[in-house]
Amino acid sequence: MTAESCTGGWIAKACTDRPGSSQWYRGGVVVYTNDLKAALLGVQPQTLAGPGAVSEPAVREMAVGALERLGGDVAVAVSGIAGPDGGTPDKPIGTVWFAWAVSGLQDVQDAAGRRVRPAIRTARHRFEGDRDAVRRQAVVVALQGVLET
């Protein structure tokens, strides 16, 4: 499963460029606006208002939302600032957050009966280059992370 913002579906394209991908790639969503991140992936309004769409909490929620709403075993979520504008001192152009979630723990309950969330790994990168270069590098990191999951 892919939940993409700054990569605009490029991760899904890279997956489906492989012959036979329909055997292992279920699909994904491309969400640029905060309202769609909330509606389609369940990103909490307080996350979007607080740390923002380009943050660790946002990509965690995107990855979990992709697993819960779309199914599958592994999800990758990506949100970043590819440029040429939109950067801030705290989140300069080239900042990209990633999350990889594995569904194996999704339906497990702990001793108290609480649902255990999927296993999630996150990373933040700062890529150099123009918009295309930032997005290309983000796709590579996202797919490498899937292979390591």
Explain what you see:
Helix 1 links the parallel strand 1 and strand 2. This protein starts with a strand and ends with a helix. It has one domain: CinA-like (Maf protein, Alpha-Beta Complex), CATH 3.90.950.20. The protein has five helices and five strands, in the order E-H-E-H-H-H-E-E-E-H. Helices cover 36% and strands 19% of the residues. The longest helix is centred in the last third of the chain and has 18 residues. The chain has a five-stranded mixed sheet, with helices on both faces. It has 149 residues and is α/β, with parallel strands linked by helices. It is globular.
Write the layout of secondary structure elements.
Blueprint: E1 2-4, H1 10-16, E2 28-30, H2 34-41, H3 45-49, H4 56-70, E3 74-80, E4 95-102, E5 119-126, H5 131-148
Parallel strand pairs: 1-2, 1-3
Antiparallel strand pairs: 3-4, 4-5
In short:
With 149 residues, the chain is an alpha/beta fold. Helices cover 36% and strands 19% of the residues. Strands 2-1-3-4-5 form a five-stranded mixed sheet, sandwiched between helices.
